Structures are given as structure tokens and as C-alpha cells.
User: Which sequence fits this backbone?
């Protein structure tokens, strides 16, 4: 184990044997850089941080684990950058603090799961944007478990149509979004799902009331992998709101409601022809 107790203004590159996993960053420690905060080009790394990891907000990455690993951002901890966290292999992230990316552009994000993984955002946690569109087979697709707050950009004019969601999951391998009681997901679109995903909501998923939707069931990829579509369940106590509560963009899927609201101005809308089975429990 390596414990980092001193500040750094030039970032850290994780290499063995100078650093031994797990790497623990103490509370009060600042790792800042004009490029990347923490970078690891090789090896599986476990990082536990209660400090501040800050990269360049216009081009840098807070933590870049090329070969994957595990990151725990503890209460009081902050990880920030143009992209706060990214990995090119499956990654596990547990957050009780703040993870902040630059969501005002088309490629910034709080967490970018390019090869899938698991994100658990605890009740005290705040994440600015989760993006995942794996193109190579990860072990378990993408799972997002939220009891805290996940926010996306609300200025739709600066983003392309496929970067408007606080949680945007795509790719061929599916996964799960579970917004738990007390959890908040908010953006122009709260959640956008491409292809085969399951979403369960017991909290609040909120889209823009003038131009967005709480949940966008899209189908922009290969129909071979996306024909089944995504399943969305709004549980008792859950709210899905926006100009449309749920909108489909050519998706095949199922929407199940358990006695709670799922609309703002409109309940269910379609941007393009699609097939959503509407069920009520």
C-alpha cells in the first residue's frame, strides 16, 4: 500500500515499484496539474481518496486508469477535470464526495466508462455526468447505482443531440441504471439509453421542462444488438419529469409504471417511429 500525504502541483504517474496498490490519498492532500491529476498507463490500480485531485478543466483528466481498476472517492473528496475519471478497461467507482467534469462541451464528463464498469453514487455523492458506450466486451456491461445527485448540462444549444443526458449509456452489451429513493438525476435529458438496458427509478429523474425528457429511450446503434430495446420501471415514490416524461427515438422496449407520475407536459412522446410497451401496475 502507498499512502500519499504530501501535495503535488505536477500530478502523479503511477508506476511500480515506486507506488504499490492500493494508493491512499489522505484528507487535506491536493494533487493538481495543468494536464492530468493521476495517470496510470499500465496495471490494475486501486485508489482511495479523501483529498482533492484537480486536472486542467479544459483538457485534463482527474484520474486516468488505462488498464482499469477501482476508485473510491470518500466523503469530502473531490476529483475534477475536463473528464474527471476515465479508463480503457472495466472500472469500478464508488463516490461519496464530488466528481466534476466539464459538461458544457461534447466530450467532457464526470465519469467516462469507455469499456464498461460499475458506478455507485452514495447519498452524499455528486457526479457531473456519466457517459458509457463500450464497443468491446466488458465483463458485466455498465451498472449505475445512484442514491445521490447526478447532473448533466442544461444548455442544450452548446451540445450535440447525443450529449444532452446526465446519464448516457450505449453500446452493445447493456446494463442497469437504478435511481434509488432520494436519488436525483437531472439534465436536458435525465437518462438516455441506447440499445439493451434496464432502468429502475424510485427517486427523481428530471429533464428540461421546455425541450427535454426525463428518460430518452434511443436506438442509434445496430439493430442486431438493439432489437429488444430498454426496459424502464418507475416505482412507487418515483418521479420522471420533463417536457416529456419518457420519449422514444425509434426504440423497442417496455415502460412499467407503479402508481407514480411520469410526466410533465406530456407523458410519453416519440421523436421517431418506435415501439414502447406501456404497462401500469
Assistant:
Amino acid at each position: 500500500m502507498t499512502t500519499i500525504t504530501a501535495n503535488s502541483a505536477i500530478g502523479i504517474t503511477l508506476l511500480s515499484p515506486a507506488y504499490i496498490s492500493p494508493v491512499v490519498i489522505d484528507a487535506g492532500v491536493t494533487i493538481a496539474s495543468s494536464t492530468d491529476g493521476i495517470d496510470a498507463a499500465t496495471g490494475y490500480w486501486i485508489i482511495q481518496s479523501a483529498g482533492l485531485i484537480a486536472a486542467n478543466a479544459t483538457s485534463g483528466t482527474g484520474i486516468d486508469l488505462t488498464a482499469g481498476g477501482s476508485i473510491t472517492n470518500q466523503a469530502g473528496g473531490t476529483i475534477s477535470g475536463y473528464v474527471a475519471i476515465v479508463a480503457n478497461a472495466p472500472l469500478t467507482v464508488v463516490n461519496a464526495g464530488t466528481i466534476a467534469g466539464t459538461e458544457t462541451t461534447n466530450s467532457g464528463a464526470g465519469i467516462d466508462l469507455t469499456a464498461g464498469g460499475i458506478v455507485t453514487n452514495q447519498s452524499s455523492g455528486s457526479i457531473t455526468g456519466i457517459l458509457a458506450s463500450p464497443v468491446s466486451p466488458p465483463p458485466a456491461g455498465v451498472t449505475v447505482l445512484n442514491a445521490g445527485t447526478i447532473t448533466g448540462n442544461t444548455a442544450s444549444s452548446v451540445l450535440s443531440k447525443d450529449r444532452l443526458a446526465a446519464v448516457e449509456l450505449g453500446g452493445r452489451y447493456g446494463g442497469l441504471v437504478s435511481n434509488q429513493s432520494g436519488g436525483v438525476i437531472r439534465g436536458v435529458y435525465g437518462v438516455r439509453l441506447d440499445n439493451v438496458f434496464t432502468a429502475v427509478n424510485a427517486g427523481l429523474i428530471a429533464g428540461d421542462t421546455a425541450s427535454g425528457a426525463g428518460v430518452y429511450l434511443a436506438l442509434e446503434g445496430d439493430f442486431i444488438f438493439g432489437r429488444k430495446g430498454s426496459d424502464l420501471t418507475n416505482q412507487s415514490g418515483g418521479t420522471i419529469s420533463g417536457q416529456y416524461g419518457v420519449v422514444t427515438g425509434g426504440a423497442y422496449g417496455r415502460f412499467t409504471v407503479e402508481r407514480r407520475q411520469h410526466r410533465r407536459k406530456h407523458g410519453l412522446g416519440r421523436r421517431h417511429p418506435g415501439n414502447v410497451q406501456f404497462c401500469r401496475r
In short: Confidence is low (pLDDT under 50) at residues 220-227, 259-281. Residues 252 and 275 are 5 Å apart (CA to CA). The chain has two domains: 1-120, 143-155+162-281. The radius of gyration is 19 Å.
